[in-house]
Amino acid sequence: MNKNRKVFQTEKLNELQQQQKRAFLIFPAIMVVLLIWGGPVTIAELHKDSFVSEMLCLVLLLAFCSAMIGIVPFYMRYIRLQGQKKQVLENSSFITVNNLEYYRDKLEGITPGAISMLEDLHIEQDKDLTACILRYEMLGLIRQTEKTYEKINEAAVKKLYLQESDWYLLKHLEKDDWNRELVIMDCTFLLLFFFPVLYMKFGQGRIQEQSPYKRTEKGEIYAEYIYGMKNFIHDYSNLNEAQKDALVLWDDYLIYAVLLEENKRIVEDIMKRRERI
Amino acid sequence: MMFLIIGIIAAAVMIGLFVVKGYNGLVVLKNRVANQAAQIDVQLKRRADLIPNIVETTKGYAHYERETLDSVTKLRTQILFTDNIEASYQASEQLGKLFGQIIAVGEQYPDLKANTNFLQLQQELSETEDRISKARQFYNDMATKYNDAIMVFPNSIIAKLFGFHRVTLLEIKESEAKNVKINADTFHI
After folding, report:
1. I need a labelling partner for A246 at 20 to 30 A (CA). Which of B14, B65, B150, B179 fits?
2. What's the rounded Cα separation, in Å, for the pair A85 and A7?
C-alpha cells in the first residue's frame, strides 16, 4: 500500500506562512527608511549629465545596505517562524492510505472534540466550544436563552451516550461559568531589532507547542476522513458564509465547518454573545 | 518604438495569462457543479434500489393497489436507466410520494411495524432521504458559487467568450427545511 503524508491547511499554518512571506518586507522597509533619511540630500548631489546611471547606482547601493542591515533580523525571524511551522506541520500531518481528497458523508461515531484533536492535536477553545454548543442545540439538549443555555430535554440527555467531556461542558454551560482564554497581543516582534538575542528566547510566543498527543492508527484513518470533509466543505459549499440559523438545514455539516475553521462567523457571534452577558 | 513593442507584447502576455487563469477557474467550478449533480443522482438511484426490498417486505402484510405497485416499478426503472438528471429528479420526487404511502400503509400493521427487516429498511430510507437532501443543498451552494463566478467582472467576459452559462438551482422542499427533531437513537456525531 502506498503511504504518504498529507497536511491539514489549518489557520495557524496559514498564519505562519503569511508571516514568513511578510518577513521579506524587512528589506524594502529598511530601504524606505534609508531613502527618507539620506535620500533627498544624496539625490541633490547627483550630476544632471549622468543622472540615470548615478540613480541606478544609488538604488543598488541602497539595496546592498538594506540587505546588510536586514539580513540578521530577517534570518532570525525566518528561522524562528520556520521552527514554528515545522512544529505545526508535524501536528497537522497524517499518514494517508486511501489518498482521499474528498469525503462527503457524515463523520459517524466521532465527537467534535475528537475531530478538533485529530486535525492538529490541539483543542482550540473558542471554536471547539462553539461546535459543542451547536451540536447540543441540534440534538435538542440545550436551548439558548437570553442569558445562558438551559437543558431542555432531560430524558434525551440521560438516554444519549455522552462522553465525559460532553457532561462537563453541559454542566458548565448550564451553570454559565465557562470562560475564554485570554488572548494577549504579541508585540515581541519589536525585540528583534533592538535585542535580537532576547527575541530568540522570548519573542513571538509559541504559536503552537509540541502536542503531548499522537494519533493512533485508527486516529490516522479518521484524520483522513476529516481531511476529506474539510476539503469538501471548502470546495463544495458556501458554509463559510452560513449563520447559526442554518443549523436546521445543514446540521452536522455546519458543526464540521466550525470545527475545521471553515466558518469563523458563528464562532465570533457566540463568543461576542458570551462577552455581552 | 522598441519600448512600445515590448510593452504591447508584455500586455498581451499578461492578458493571455489572465484569460487562462480565469478560464481554468471556471472549468474547475463547472466540473464541481457537474460532480455534485452526479452525487444527487447516485443518492436517487440508491433510494430507488431500496424499493424492491421494501415492497417485498411489506407485501406479505399489507395489500396495495396494483396501480401503486406498477407506478413504483415504472418510476424506479426511469430513475435507474435515464441519463437525464432532471427527469431522474422528477421521477424520484413522485417515487418519494409513493414511498411515503407504502410506508404509511405498512405502519398500520403492527406485525410489520415489529419486523426487524422493515425497521432497518425504514432507517436506511430515512438516511438516504437525508443524503439526497444534503446533496441537493451542496449542489445549490456549488451552483451559486459557479453562477457568481461567471457573473462577476472580468470573469463575465471570459464566460461569454467560452460559452459558460448559468445553471439552475434546485428548489429545497419545505419538508427539508423543517426543524431538526430530537432523536436519541440517531446520535451520531
Report:
1. B150
2. 12
The dihedrals phi and psi of A109, each to the nearest 5 degrees, come to 70, 30
Contacts of B39 in chain A (CB under 8 A): 104
Q: How far is A37 from chain B (nearest CA, A)?
A: 34
What pLDDT does B20 receive? 93
- Please report which confidence band the pLDDT of residue A46 belongs to, taking 50, 70 and 90 as the band edges: confident
Tell me the whole-structure pTM to 2 decimals.
0.76
Q: Which of A106, A139, A248 sits opposite B177 (nearest CB)?
A: A248
pLDDT band at residue A197 under the 50/70/90 scheme? low
Q: How far is B66 from chain A (nearest CA, A)?
A: 37
CA distance A85 to A3: 23
CB contact under 8 A, B181 and A140: yes
A204-210: Cβ within 8 A, 24+ apart: A204/A77, A204/A80, A204/A81, A204/A84, A206/A84, A207/A12, A207/A15, A207/A16, A207/A84, A207/A88, A208/A12, A208/A84, A208/A87, A208/A88, A208/A91, A208/A120, A208/A122, A209/A87, A210/A87, A210/A90, A210/A91
Other C-beta atoms closer than 10 Å to the C-beta of A77 total 23
Report the residue of A238, A251, A252 to disrupt the B interface, i.e. the one with the largest count of B CBs within 10 Å: A238
Cis, peptide link before residue B154, omega less than 30° from 0: yes
- Using an 8 Å CB-CB cutoff, list residues of chain B that contact chain A: 32, 36, 39, 131, 134-135, 137-138, 141-142, 144-145, 172, 176-182, 184, 187-189
- Of B21, B88, B95, B5, the closest CA to residue B54 belongs to B95
- Residues of chain B falling short of pLDDT 50: 176-189
Interface ipTM: 0.75
